[in-house]
Design a protein that fits this description.
The structure holds two protein chains of two kinds. By secondary structure, chain A is mainly α. In chain A, 76% of the residues lie in helices and 0% in strands. The longest helix of chain A has 34 residues, at 59-92. Chain B has helices at 8-18, 21-50, 69-76, 78-112, 115-126, 133-144, 149-154, 167-193, 196-204, 209-237, 241-246, 252-260, 266-289; strands at 54-55, 62-63. In chain B, helix 4 (78-112) runs parallel beside helix 8 (167-193) and helix 12 packs antiparallel against helix 13 (266-289). Classes of the chains: A mainly alpha, B mainly alpha.
Chain lengths: 267, 296
C-alpha cells in the first residue's frame, strides 16, 4: 500500500522533518567547533581554528584514543568468540533452556548501564581483582556479545542446515565443515557484528566509569572536559569521534544489506 | 582446523564429537554461558545480596546483617518515591514520543521510498546511532542554554525554550532525541517484513487506507514497536549523565551514583538499583510474550 499522493507527500515531509531533528544538533556541534568565543552563545561572534590546534596538541586526547581502541579491540574479540558460539548452539541444536539463552544474551544491553557497572564493580572488588584495562574489556564484552550473536544467528537462520550435512556426507569432518562451509556463510555477519560491537564499546561511558582503574577512554576524557572545562575543545573532539565512529557503522550497514536492523540484519 | 588436510588427531576428535552431539553442544555453550550466566548473572546476584546489608552510620563500615531496611527506606521516603515515579514517567513519555515520531519515517523508508533512497535513509538513521552519546547530550546543552540557538530562534515570537527549571521537559526532549534511532530501525524492519499481498488483500476487501493501517499494519508492526521500546525505555530509565548535564532533576541513576562513592551507601545504592532491574525484567518478559524478540 503506497497510499494516496497526499499521504505520500505527508510521509515525505515527516521524513525530512525527522532527519532534520536528527542532524541539526550534530551540525550545531560542528559549527561551535569553530567558534571564537569560549562560551557557547548564539549568535557566534567569530570563527577560528584555534580549538582544533589545542585539541590535537593535547596528549590526553591521543592517550584516550589509544585506550579506547585497545578496549574496543579486546571487547570485540571476546564478543566475536562468545557470540558466535552461542549463536551456533542456539541455531543448530535443540536443548533445554534454549529459549532462555536469547534472554540472557540481551540482558546486559537491556539493563541500565549503571546496574551492569555496579554489579561488575562489586564483583571485581569482592574477588580482589584490581580495576584495570582488563576489567574495562570484560565489562564491554559483556554487552557487546548480543550484537555478534544477533547478526550471526540471523545469518544462520537464513542459511540452510543441509549444506553442512552435504559437506559431512562428502567426507568433511566437523572442522573442515566449519572452515569451508559454515564460516564463509557467516563471515560478513561476523564482520558486521564485530564492527557494531567495536562502535558500541568505543562510545560506552557508564559501565566504563565503574570498571576503569584510572584508564581514560575517549568518552571519559570528554566527560571530564564537560564537567571541568566545557569549551569548544569538546566540540572538536566530538567532531573527530563522530567522523571516526561513522566508518564502522557505515561498513556494517552495507554488509548486512539495506534492511540492517538495529542489532544486525535480521530479515 | 587447518586449511590443508587436518592432522589425524583432529580428524579422530571430529569423528568422536560427531557421534556425541551433547558434547558438541556443551563445548559450544560452556564459554558463552560461563561468561553470561556465571560472571554476569553472578555479578547481579552479588549486587542484589549487597542490597540487604547496611552501612554503620558512625563508622561508615558495611554491617553484614541481612535486613530489609534499605527497601523500607526506599518505600518510606517521599523523595525516593518521587524520583522513581519521575524516572519511570519520563521513560514512558520518551518511549511514546519516539514511537510516534519513528512510525512515519519508518513507514516511508519501508514502504514508500525507492530501494536506493531506502538504502540512504537506513544509513542516515543508523550513522548517528553511536556517534557518541555524550556529544549529543552536549549538543542539547548548547541548544537549550539561556543564550543558545533555540532561544535566539524563539525570541522573535516572544517565546522561550525550556530553561534549567524545566528540567523534566529538557530531559524529555533530549532523551527522545538520543534514543530515536533505536525506535526507527526495528519499526522499519518490522514494516518491511509485512507482505505487500496482505495490504492489497485488505484494500481489495474494501478497507480504506486508514482501516488497513489500523487493522492490518499496526497489529503486525506492534512487536517491532515493543522491540524498539525496550531500548528507549531502558536507556532513559538507567541514565544519570544527561540529568546531570542538563538539569537539576534527579533520576534513579543519580541517587544510585551519588551513593556508590566512598562516602556513599553502597547497600542502599544496590537496593535502589534493583528497582530498574525488576522493571526491566518484567518489561522483557512482557516484550517476549508480545513477540518483540523476533524484531530486535
Amino acid at each position: 500500500m503506497r497510499g494516496s499522493t497526499v499521504t505520500r507527500i505527508a510521509l515525505r515531509l515527516a521524513t525530512i522533518g525527522v532527519l532534520a531533528f536528527i542532524y541539526v544538533p550534530l551540525a550545531t556541534i560542528l559549527i561551535y567547533a569553530f567558534s571564537e568565543a569560549r562560551a557557547l552563545a548564539w549568535p557566534i561572534a567569530g570563527f577560528t581554528l584555534d580549538w582544533w590546534g589545542r585539541a590535537l596538541a593535547d596528549p590526553g586526547f591521543w592517550a584516550a584514543m589509544g585506550t579506547s581502541l585497545q578496549a574496543a579491540a579486546g571487547a570485540t574479540a571476546i564478543a566475536l568468540v562468545l557470540g558466535t558460539l552461542a549463536a551456533l548452539a542456539v541455531q543448530r541444536y535443540r536443548f533445554f533452556g534454549r529459549e532462555a539463552i536469547s534472554f540472557v544474551v540481551i540482558l546486559p544491553i537491556a539493563l541500565p548501564g549503571i546496574v551492569t557497572g555496579m554489579a561488575l564493580n562489586a564483583t571485581f572488588t569482592s574477588l580482589g581483582f584490581g580495576l584495570s584495562m582488563f576489567t574495562i574489556i570484560v565489562g564491554h564484552a559483556t554487552f557487546c556479545v548480543v550484537l555478534v550473536y544477533n547478526n550471526v544467528i540471523a545469518r544462520l537462520r537464513r542459511s540452510s542446515r543441509s549444506i553442512e550435512e552435504a559437506s559431512m556426507d562428502l567426507g568433511a569432518d566437523t572442522w573442515q565443515t566449519f572452515r569451508y562451509v559454515t564460516f564463509p556463510v557467516v563471515r560478513t555477519a561476523l564482520l558486521a557484528g564485530g564492527l557494531l560491537a567495536f562502535a558500541l564499546s568505543f562510545d560506552e561511558v557508564i559501565v566504563t566509569t565503574f570498571t576503569t582503574g584510572g584508564q581514560r577512554t575517549v568518552p571519559i576524557y570528554i566527560l571530564n572536559l564537560l564537567q571541568r572545562d566545557p569549551s569548544p575543545v569538546v566540540n572538536v573532539v566530538a567532531v573527530i569521534v563522530i567522523a571516526l565512529s561513522t566508518v564502522p557503522v557505515y561498513i556494517a550497514t552495507r554488509l548486512t544489506g539495506d534492511s540492517g536492523s538495529l542489532t544486525g540484519g535480521r530479515t | 582446523m587447518t586449511a590443508t588436510g587436518p592432522p589425524a588427531r583432529g580428524r579422530r576428535l571430529a569423528a568422536w564429537l560427531y557421534a556425541r552431539p551433547r558434547v558438541q553442544l556443551g563445548a559450544l555453550l560452556s564459554a558463552p554461558l560461563g561468561w553470561l550466566v556465571v560472571a554476569y548473572l553472578g555479578s547481579l546476584a552479588i549486587l542484589f545480596v549487597n542490597s540487604f546489608w547496611q552501612v554503620d552510620p558512625f563508622t561508615r563500615n558495611i554491617v553484614y546483617e541481612p535486613s530489609l531496611e534499605n527497601y523500607g527506606r526506599l518505600l518510606g521516603t517521599e523523595v525516593f518515591r518521587n524520583v522513581t515515579v519521575r524516572t519511570l514517567a519520563i521513560a514512558a513519555a520518551v518511549t511514546i514520543t519516539d514511537a510516534l515520531i519513528a512510525f512515519p519515517i519508518a513507514y516511508y523508508m519501508a514502504r514508500v521510498a525507492s530501494p536506493r533512497v531506502r538504502g540512504w535513509l537506513v544509513v542516515a538513521v543508523l550513522l548517528p546511532l553511536w556517534s557518541s552519546y555524550l556529544v549529543k547530550v552536549f549538543a542539547w546543552r548548547i541548544i537549550l542554554q539561556d543564550n543558545g540557538p533555540l532561544n535566539a530562534l524563539l525570541a522573535p515570537f516572544g517565546l522561550q525554550g525550556p530553561g534549567v527549571t524545566d528540567g523534566e521537559i529538557r530531559l524529555w526532549i533530549t532523551f527522545s532525541y538520543l534514543w530515536l534511532p533505536y525506535m526507527i530501525l526495528p519499526i522499519f524492519a518490522g514494516l518491511e517484513r509485512i507482505p505487500g499481498s496482505l495490504l492489497e488483500a485488505s484494500g481489495d476487501l474494501g478497507a480504506r487506507s486508514w482501516q488497513t493501517l489500523r487493522r492490518v499494519i499496526l497489529p503486525l508492526a506492534f512487536p517491532a514497536v515493543v522491540a524498539g521500546s525496550i531500548f528507549t525505555f531502558s536507556l532513559t530509565m538507567g541514565d544519570y549523565i544527561a540529568p546531570n548535564q542538563l538539569s537539576s532533576v534527579q533520576f534513579i541513576g543519580n541517587v544510585v551514583q551519588a551513593n556508590v562513592g566512598i562516602a556513599g551507601d553502597l547497600p542502599f545504592a544496590a537496593a535502589f538499583a534493583t528497582v530498574p532491574v525488576f522493571v526491566m525484567i518484567v518489561y522483557l518478559f512482557v516484550a517476549r510474550r508480545l513477540g518483540a524478540f523476533e524484531s530486535l
